[in-house]
Amino acid sequence: MHKIEIKNLHVSIEDKEILKGVNLTVKSGEIHALMGPNGNGKSTLLAAIMGHPKYEITSGEILLDGESILDMTVDQRSKAGIFLAMQNPQTIPGVSNLEFLKYVVNAHNDNSKKLKEIFQEIKEKANGLDFDLNMLKRFVNDGFSGGEKKKNEILQLKLLNPLFSLIDEIDSGLDVDALEVVSKNLNDEELKKQGMIIVSHYDRFFKKVNPTHAHVIIDGKIVKSGGSEIVDKINSEGYSWVKGNE
Ligand SMILES: Nc1ncnc2c1ncn2[C@@H]1O[C@H](COP(=O)(O)OP(=O)(O)O)[C@@H](O)[C@H]1O
Ligand SMILES: [Mg+2]
């Protein structure tokens, strides 16, 4: 069993405090739904866990299996088993998607895998994603549709199978079929051994991935935690009832 512990985390961007004391523990096998109105710090929390340099941690702790990761770079955190599926995946002109995925896989395997072996793995993992293999030849995310970018994130998640996945609005921009494919992939028995934090606004997505825990973040703080009943209540009543509790 592995564990991420976030303790009284304060995070600023360009001297503006965004997270104002977040406490959250996620263990292997748990799926945490993270909800909250736009602009309240959900992506900031995930980026801070991943180690984005723009997000300054002014106080608090992030522990992976009891050890602080705050001094670790993004690639060290990735190698330690943390993965972020980004809300807005970056385009990398000039780098083919296959080259990129090869680099991603090999960075986690001491460069031990040959391209042929990696290609085989990619084909296998892409298969369940309804992912057009022609996208491997194109530059990373360049001209990909919203749905294709999101599937590319899930492809990386499947290739790495990390200890913890932080999944930021993967369902935004997906059509009904793609939503079904993505949630089916996340429901894979092997992947579900991970701990996950999943950000989404939509109950229809959470219904498919069955979170074990749910949290609401407002103004940089988790103001409500519980089980999936929180997702149901937000779906029917919005956020006013949570705000009223502050
Ligand atoms: N790179 C950035 N530079 C400046 N402000 C930012 C940056 N990223 C996020 N913010 C601000 O931080 C706040 C929280 O943003 P974010 O974590 O993206 O919210 P959420 O994911 O909950 O919609 C917002 O006010 C947003 O404008
Ligand atoms: Mg966000």
Automatic annotation (TrEMBL):
SUPFAM superfamilies: P-loop containing nucleoside triphosphate hydrolases (SSF52540)
UniProt keyword list: ATP-binding, Nucleotide-binding
Domain ABC transporter: 4-244
GO molecular function terms noted in the UniProt entry: ATP binding; ATP hydrolysis activity
Superkingdom of the source species: Bacteria
Family, as annotated: Belongs to the ABC transporter superfamily. Ycf16 family.
Protein name according to UniProt: Fe-S cluster assembly ATP-binding protein SufC
Originating organism: Spiroplasma chinense
